[in-house]
Design goal:
With about 325 residues, this protein is α/β, with parallel strands linked by helices. The protein is built from twelve helices and ten strands. Strands 1, 2, 3, 4, 5, 6, 7, 8, 9 and 10 form a ten-stranded mixed beta sheet that branches. The termini are far apart.
């Protein structure tokens, strides 16, 4: 009997000791819901690498791509709320997809916990440098002269980027053919090869090719110019009043994740975002770093979730 009691006591002490270990006591998985090479992947790996470097944590990116980023989000929703699984979410899979996909398995406002905002970025309309389109006005004129003759690629059906293209078509009263791809890289290769005329892209996904001179940026879709491309006009400046489509990136964990873990990760990410090195690295990718509390990110999620319900419904886009 005494031996049994001693065994129970030893197990209890071991459990208590395990619980008392500082977080994180093992590697943290960062689910990336898009393929390697795109804007989400670039920012996710930047965050993972810098957290590993500065906080001495081990953060491991895990690409789970497909269905406009919804597969990766669903993976995070199914994970145990222990703090060892998080996902890089953005407008595409957090606020657009729920209204676009008829049978989506998650509600981001209920099934995930907001942890830390990372950055926001405009969407950019680009063409290859050899293209006949020198300005956005050239595109509009050509589309009006020959409706449906111009093609534009995007990272996939139902992404914010796809809908930015659709919203622009409506604002300009033109017809262009949308060509969806499985991620930014595939779309990028085709616009560079001349297989599609234009690409609508997150700025981080396109920034490398813009800097190399292989892509010509025609306009950004945010309300103000990007500090990364200050010479590129906004769509609104070019005559489409109040045009404003941008996207954001934030870290989320499964609902029920302990608040102290959420607070710990938020503090580390915000500390990282405040460093000149991290700020410069994010801006170099075409994004704008922006720290938030978990509550602020949750508020952003909920407000955009409701806002984009009307936008998606007005677009008529639905994915079975």
């Amino acid at each position: 009997m005494i031996r049994k009691l001693l065994t129970i006591a030893a197990l209890a002490l071991a459990f208590t000791a395990a619980q008392a270990q500082p977080y994180p006591a093992k590697p943290v998985r960062l689910i990336v819901p898009f393929p390697p090479g795109g804007g989400t992947d670039i920012l996710s790996r930047l965050v993972a690498n810098k957290l590993t470097e500065t906080s001495k944590w081990t953060v491991v990116p895990d690409n789970r791509a497909g269905a406009g980023g919804t597969i990766g989000i669903a993976e995070a929703v199914r994970a145990a709320p222990t703090g060892y699984d998080m996902v890089m979410g953005q407008k595409d899979n957090m606020v657009v997809a729920p209204w676009l996909y008829k049978n989506l398995s998650y509600d981001p406002t209920k099934d995930l916990t907001a942890v830390a905002h990372v950055a926001y970025t405009p969407v950019v309309i680009v063409t290859r440098s050899e293209s006949k389109f020198k300005t956005l006005a050239d595109v509009v004129a050509a589309a009006r002269a020959a409706p449906d003759s111009i093609t534009y690629g995007s990272p996939g059906n139902g992404t914010t980027i796809h809908l930015a293209g659709e919203i622009f078509k409506s604002a300009a009263n033109i017809k262009m053919r949308h060509v969806p791809y499985k991620g930014s890289n595939a779309a990028m290769m085709d616009v560079l090869a001349g297989n599609v005329d234009l690409m609508v892209s997150s700025l981080p996904s396109a920034m490398g090719q813009i800097k190399s001179g292989k892509l010509r940026p025609l306009a950004v879709t945010s309300a103000r110019r990007s500090s990364s491309l200050p010479e590129v006009p906004t769509v609104a400046e070019l005559g489409y009043k109040d045009f404003d489509v941008s996207t954001w990136y934030g870290l989320f964990m499964p609902a029920g994740t302990p608040k102290d873990i959420v607070a710990t990760v938020n503090a580390e990410v915000n500390k990282l975002l405040a460093t000149p090195e991290m700020k410069a690295a994010i801006v170099a990718q075409g994004a704008e770093p922006q720290a938030m509390t978990p509550e602020q990110l949750q508020t952003l999620l909920k407000s955009d979730y409701e806002k984009w319900r009307g936008i998606v419904q007005a677009s008529g886009a639905v994915i079975e």
